[in-house]
Amino acid sequence: MTEQLFQHTLWRKGNQFRVTVLAAEDQTGHNPATAAVYGNPQNDCLVRIHSRCVYGEVFESDDCDCRAQLRTALQMIDAEGAGVVIYLDQEGRGEGLRNKARGYAYSQEHHTDTFTSYRALGLPDDSRSYEAAAELLHRLNLESVRLLTNNPAKVKALQDNDIDVKRETWTVPVSESAQAYLEAKRQFGHMIVTAQAD
Ligand SMILES: Nc1nc2c(ncn2[C@@H]2O[C@H](COP(=O)(O)OP(=O)(O)OP(=O)(O)O)[C@@H](O)[C@H]2O)c(=O)[nH]1
């Protein structure tokens, strides 16, 4: 089925932005890829592709960097006046909340990091896909972007979908309790330079 863009505006901290939802017309029951589009983004604009984390973003858990990254990306793009934040409903690195919660419980019982726990539970390290994000960028006429990420899989996924990517190195200050998570991501190949505690 052909996917369509559904668009409208919202306000954030006094600035208006455009919401762009990429979905099949009759798509209900799960959340499609969504973009917050600031200003009039052109090639080489700042882009953040962010996967859902209910613990960090909604419950304000300090155990991961998800909330800090999302807020920082929104602030940076808002400050530049143009750019895109794409939000993907890919909780728990694509495994969903049930398996994410199982992983957390396993980690707390066995003192393992998140990747070790997933493996012990027979789950893939990361089952996310970024095709919908690439499609959204194409629909926004963006062929090259400055991507806010430390995750090489996101860079490769966009490149594989014919988008030229310059990785925007960033360091988002996070609390002490997120350091173990950052270290696990680093060992898994994320290009995290330093992790600052606030
Ligand atoms: N299983 C599990 N998933 C987590 C944990 N903390 C965060 N996540 C998930 O990890 C993913 C983080 O996604 P993003 O913030 O988009 O990106 P990233 O892969 O960390 O890479 P960056 O672009 O560098 O931030 C989301 O799917 C979260 O739900 C955790 O402790 N355990």
TrEMBL record:
Name by which UniProt lists this protein: GTP cyclohydrolase II
SUPFAM superfamilies: RibA-like
Species name: Lentzea cavernae
Cofactor(s), names only, from the UniProt record: Zn(2+)
Alphabetical UniProt keywords: GTP-binding, Hydrolase, Metal-binding, Nucleotide-binding, Riboflavin biosynthesis, Zinc
Domain GTP cyclohydrolase II: 21-167
Keyword Transmembrane: no
Keyword 4Fe-4S carried by entry: no
Pathway(s) where this gene product acts: Cofactor biosynthesis; riboflavin biosynthesis; 5-amino-6-(D-ribitylamino)uracil from GTP: step 1/4
Entry-linked NCBIfam families: PRK00393.1
Gene3D superfamilies assigned: GTP cyclohydrolase II (3.40.50.10990)
InterPro entries cross-referenced by the UniProt entry: GTP_cyclohydro_II, RibA, RibA-like_sf
Residues that span the membrane, as ranges: none
CDD domains, per database record: GTP_cyclohydro2
Top-level taxon of the source organism: Bacteria
Catalyses which reaction(s): GTP + 4 H2O = 2,5-diamino-6-hydroxy-4-(5-phosphoribosylamino)-pyrimidine + formate + 2 phosphate + 3 H(+)
EC number of this enzyme: 3.5.4.25
